[in-house]
Amino acid sequence: MIDHPGNVFVVSAPSGAGKSTLTQRLVRTVPDLIFSISFTTRKPRPGEVDGRDYFYIDDARFDTMVQEGGFVEWVQVYGHRYGTGKDWLHGVLATGRDVLLDIETTGARNLRQAIPDARMIFILPPSAASLEDRLRSRGKDSDEQIRIRMEHARHEMECYPTYDYLVMNDDLESAYHQFEAIILATRATRERMTSAARAILEGF
Questions:
Q1: Are the beta carbons of 126 and 168 closer than 8 angstroms?
Q2: Were both Cys, which of 26, 131, 176, 195 would link to 125 (CB 3.0–4.6 Å)?
Q3: What is the rounded distance in angstroms from the CA atom of residue 134 to the CA atom of residue 167?
Q4: Are 195 and 154 in contact (CB under 8 A)?
């Protein structure tokens, strides 16, 4: 049921699948597409800015927002909590702009329950071997950390049937154009364009 002017897009992917590269380019290129800013209890990293990268809050404030139903979804990851603010999200959607949320699979499942008409997109790596190669080429993780990331990636891959679209990132340009096409096609669905069509029809 569509009760907000803007569209909600959720994107998930295993670490190393190229999700950040694709989403950053999409938000730069596609007009009226806003990247969601999550609330988090973790501390800012060097160069991060409150209100741009995240809304940084303490555990007490997070607890209050949970109790008051202030999140569309929230999850705990590696000892810190992350959540999508209900007021922030609905405020953006009410302007008619679309929101793109980068959420891991548990949060995505929770958001789908809260917003059934959200479009769910999963970025696939070409293969498990290529994903491991990408993780190793970054040079950031130990062998043990890569093993843990690969186990987590397998768990995330098992969730692909719950998504509406699967985009394989074996070629960055091809993957980007598929990703962009999903956004643009969703904006042209009959459900989204009905009010415009009715207004035109009334002019005849």
A1: yes
A2: 131
A3: 17
A4: no
- Across the chain, what does the average pLDDT equal? 92
Is 39 in contact with 77 (CB distance < 8 Å)? no
Write the Ramachandran bin of 120: left for phi over 0, alpha for psi from -120 to 50, otherwise beta. Answer: beta
Domain spans, the chain: 8-36+98-202
Q: What 3 state SS string does 141-173 have?
A: CCHHHHHHHHHHHHHHHCCHHHCCEEEECCCHH
Q: Are 38 and 82 in contact (CB under 8 A)?
A: yes
Return all residues near 152 (Cβ < 8 A) that are at least 6 apart. 14, 15
25: amino acid identity, one letter: R
| pLDDT score for 4 | 62
Cβ-based neighbours of 4, under 8 Å, separated by 6 or more = 90, 93, 94
Q: How far apart are CA 11 and CA 70, in angstroms?
A: 22
Q: Give tens-digit pLDDT for 110-162.
A: 999 999 999 999 999 999 999 999 889 888 888 898 999 899 999 999 999 99
pTM: 0.89
